[in-house]
Amino acid sequence: MGSWQAMAVSVWALFLTGGAGYLAAHGARAGEAGSTPAAWPDRIERAEHAWAVVLAAHPRCPCTRATAAELITALAGASEAYELIVLAYRPSGDAAFADTGVIRRLGSLPHARVVDDPDGRVAAGFGALTSGHAALYDPAGRLRFSGGLTPSRAHIGPNTGAGAVRSLLRGGGAPAAHAPVYGCPLDNDDPHLLLGGCAPEGDHACTP
Question: What percent of the chain has pLDDT over 90?
Answer without folding.
Answer: 69
